[in-house]
Specification:
Layout: E1 11-16, H1 22-30, E2 37-42, H2 48-58
Parallel strand pairs: 1-2
Length: 71
């Protein structure tokens, strides 16, 4: 669906020190089916704000959508 926008895009996911294996799932997706996915890491839990700041600092495109799964 995003490809139909006719714009460059990326999906930035921040693994915020998770311990449930979700980081490994993100890595598999980024290495295969989801070619626009970029995974960033926090080795320790630093909270939603820190994850959002990391994603904003690393984003390569001007439009942003954010969602939080655990917070």
């Amino acid at each position: 669906a995003l490809a139909r926008l006719g714009r460059e895009y990326e999906i930035v996911a921040v693994d915020a020190g998770s311990t449930d294996g979700s980081g490994a799932v993100l890595d598999r997706l980024a290495g295969g089916r989801v070619r626009h996915l970029r995974v960033l890491r926090h080795e320790a839990r630093r909270g939603y704000g820190a994850s959002l700041r990391t994603a904003l600092a690393e984003a390569r495109h001007p439009l942003l959508f954010t969602t939080a799964v655990e917070y």
